[in-house]
Amino acid sequence: MFERFTRASREIVVGAQNCARDLGSPTISAGHLVLSLSRTAPDHLRETLHKYGVTPETVTRSLESAGELGDMDSEALSAIGIDLDAVRRDIRNKFGRDILDTPAPRRGWLGSLLGQHLAFADGAKNALELALREALARKDRRIRPEHILLGVLRANDQSTRALFAAQGASDRLRLDIYEFLDDAA
User: Fold this and answer.
1) Residue 51's pLDDT is what?
2) Exposure string (b/e) for 132-143, b if CB count within 10 Å is 16 or more?
3) Which pLDDT belongs to residue 67?
4) Would you say residue 34 lies in a domain?
5) 150 touches 45 (CB < 8 A)
6) pLDDT at position 113 over 50
7) How many CB atoms are closer than 10 A to CB 94?
8) CA–CA gap between residue 98 and residue 92 (Å, rounded)
9) Strand partners, 183
10) Residue 33, domain member (yes or no)
11) How far apart are CA 171 and CA 166, in angstroms?
12) Using one digit for the tens of pLDDT, what is the confidence trace for 10-67?
């Protein structure tokens, strides 16, 4: 499926992975896709999101309230006397600054700690599948960032639905995205 993604769409997906990793999340959620879109989407789409109040700050707050930041792992380790930030600092000091940015071959919490490639949560998988369906329904050959956002809006992900509903953005935003896609065709 990813071979159909434009370069900008691939950057959105990689950005979502980076957002999830930066926020300490064990998986990439649909919310991380929205956060990446709000930060790195092409100007017209990012500005439209911001117009509806979907900014990096509002998305991050939404992820915090949905408990998608991975703080529970850090808190659980802290409860047994392990400072996760100190461990990361020690690893970077010993093995180099970018060691945690390199995908690790391990799985589980240790692999996540060491910076392995993160898996997609069900909501993000669903959003990306729906992005493909949006593109196919429109007979678009490539999946653009607009398709990803349409997929997120259609996905059965409660936290992103709540975010867009709180900003009053869902219906009008969808129409704006269709206009962008029509203009690009």
Assistant:
1) 92
2) bebbeeeebeeb
3) 67
4) yes
5) no
6) no
7) 8
8) 7
9) none
10) yes
11) 12
12) 999 999 999 998 888 889 999 999 999 999 999 999 999 999 999 999 999 888 877 6
Count of domains in the chain? 1
H helices then E strands: how many in the chain? Answer: 11, 2
Residue type, 132: L
Range of the domain at 156: 2-70+116-184
Look at the block and give the residue holding tokens 């100190």.
Answer: 86
Q: Is residue 80 part of a domain?
A: no
Q: Report the CATH number at residue 7.
A: 1.10.1780.10
Does the residue 27 lie in any domain? yes
The model carries a pTM of 0.74
- Rounded to 5, what percent of the chain is helix, strand, coil? 70, 5, 25
Phi, psi (rounded to 5 degrees) for 79:
-65, -25
